[in-house]
């Protein structure tokens, strides 16, 4: 019986761990900063928020490196007028976080009529030097 109560106490401590809550809060803030950097086409922020080995997958099947991804936004080939995220779920394991959400955006990509897109997105973030960096992203319609 004593072991049972010890186990219940341990589970309660883990569930209420402020470090875990702080970690989720930190990744939420990072995802929001990334969302805003996409809308602003803020290349300096995108540089800071993405890993050197970024694999950025679009719903069209195109996969870009970090350099290609940032260049596409900087040139206006990909242009987000607004982005709204919903139904966000965050799972962390050590220095890795998986974030899933629905993305609804207004776009005005170069050479195309303005459009509204709705996607399911999964991003993988890695904590390096105290900061979350986007390592991979994949979107599907």
Automatic annotation (TrEMBL):
<dbReference type="Pfam" id="PF14534">
    <property type="entry name" value="DUF4440"/>
</dbReference>
<dbReference type="GO" id="GO:0016853">
    <property type="term" value="F:isomerase activity"/>
</dbReference>
<dbReference type="InterPro" id="IPR027843">
    <property type="entry name" value="DUF4440"/>
</dbReference>
<feature type="domain" description="DUF4440">
    <location>
        <begin position="27"/>
        <end position="134"/>
    </location>
</feature>
<protein>
    <submittedName>
        <fullName>Ketosteroid isomerase homolog</fullName>
    </submittedName>
</protein>
<dbReference type="InterPro" id="IPR032710">
    <property type="entry name" value="NTF2-like_dom_sf"/>
</dbReference>
<keyword id="KW-0413">Isomerase</keyword>
